[in-house]
Design goal:
394 residues; 2 domains; two-stranded antiparallel ribbon; globular; disordered N terminus
């Protein structure tokens, strides 16, 4: 990762950032997108860091299998945002006469770094390469970013739309009609579907430790995750069109509702499922992400309501940094031992949680209070970084 502190990269305030927007073709940052990204990352940290995994309010849990809770929306929202961001960061370089070889090399380098950071989180602190989980959240972000960025540079909007449809239909065909060895055709139960069979075949011993036989960020389910990224690219390119903002906003909402409706209808035969990243899940979550982005775009970039945005902007401009460190720091805290009054030793994180929260709140509220406090602590750190105009690029 590298650190930059240039005025052109990160303005002093959200208001300055908003002033940089001078039209749909401006290559600068879109304030509403930074807010949406920051909101998503803050939600990701909230749901990933409860004080007690056994005491969590239902909306902050993943669905047991089929269906979707608010927590299940966080990761697809982020991949959708990755797609939108690609259109703003690469649009000015898409039509360079010199070609894209150097740019694709940089994209590949960034993707490898993201993938490596994800592996590091899985390796730390034991660094057991024999059983390290290879798939993961950052790993999937890296793959989706690389594929979508190359597609954006090398294909047209129409081709991207066709490819997204082809991916969703092909994945449905594979999961519903290709027989799973030893199981049969059309099974979608945990560990008894084509995606799980392929994970276990190719990554045996390097999968999610809660199952050891399949992975929620596995190989085959990464294919529709790319479709989520493409949906974001399509939205980003629409936002960049030089048309009337009211028309632009109207069609964003129309597309959002069509995607949600199609996802809900498809759910009847190919259930909405985050662990499998089903085609219905892609459409349903992309439609909801479009709604959130459209609302942010209307409030911030059209109506100019920006005073409330800074907490989300400070999260949004250092999104990968805070995600990585928020996964690393709790492990470090757990490695530091503290002696209780009764002489027993516990990790520092457990000690702080028991001392500051469980002694005051009920178990489920203590767990939530810890998660909220964790988000607020990081907000303070990121606020200082933002005011000093520090952004860490991966």
């Amino acid at each position: 990762m590298s650190r930059t502190s240039t005025t052109s990269t990160l303005p002093k305030s959200a208001a300055e950032l908003e002033k940089q927007l001078s039209g749909t073709h401006t290559p600068g940052r879109l304030l509403s997108l930074d807010v949406f990204r920051g909101l998503t990352v803050a939600a990701m940290i909230l749901v990933n860091n409860p004080g007690d995994w056994g005491a969590i309010y239902p909306p902050l849990r993943h669905a047991e299998w089929h269906g979707a809770t608010p927590t299940d929306l966080v990761f697809p929202f982020f991949l959708f945002i990755v797609g939108v961001s690609i259109t703003f960061s690469l649009s000015t370089r898409k039509y360079e006469e010199s070609g894209h070889a150097k740019l694709i090399a940089k994209i590949g380098k960034r993707s490898l770094i993201l993938f490596g950071l994800g592996l590091f989180l899985h390796l730390f602190p034991s660094f057991d390469f024999a059983t390290v989980r290879i798939p993961g959240v950052l790993q999937r972000i890296a793959i989706v970013f690389f594929i979508c960025a190359v597609l954006f540079l090398k294909t047209s909007i129409r081709s991207q739309a066709y490819l997204m449809a082809a991916i969703l239909l092909s994945y449905w065909f594979l999961m519903a009609l290709v027989p799973v060895p030893g199981v049969g055709i059309g099974y979608l139960e945990p560990g008894k579907n084509l995606a799980a069979w392929l994970d276990n075949l190719l990554l045996h011993g390097h999968l999610w430790k809660q199952t050891n036989t399949w992975d929620p960020e596995g190989i085959l389910s990464t294919l529709p995750a790319v479709a989520t990224g493409i949906s974001g690219m399509l939205a980003g390119q629409w936002l960049r069109f030089d048309i009337d903002p009211a028309r632009k906003l109207t069609w964003l909402f129309v597309a959002a509702n069509l995607a949600i409706l199609t996802g809900l209808i498809w759910d009847w035969v190919f259930p909405i499922n985050k662990a499998l990243w089903t085609s219905s899940f892609v459409l349903y979550t992309s439609g909801l992400a479009l709604h959130v982005l459209a609302v942010c775009y209307w409030l911030i970039d059209i109506q100019g309501f920006t005073k409330w945005t800074k907490p989300f902007v400070v999260y949004g401009v250092n999104a990968i940094t805070v995600f990585f460190l928020s996964g690393l720091i709790p492990r470090i805290l757990s490695m530091i031992t503290v002696t209780n009054a009764d002489g027993t030793e516990v990790g520092l994180q457990t000690y702080l949680y028991n001392t500051l929260f469980t002694s005051v709140f009920s178990p489920i509220n203590a767990s939530l209070a810890w998660a909220i406090s964790f988000v607020l602590v990081w907000l303070g750190i990121l606020w200082i970084m933002y005011n000093k105009r520090i952004i860490i690029k991966v």
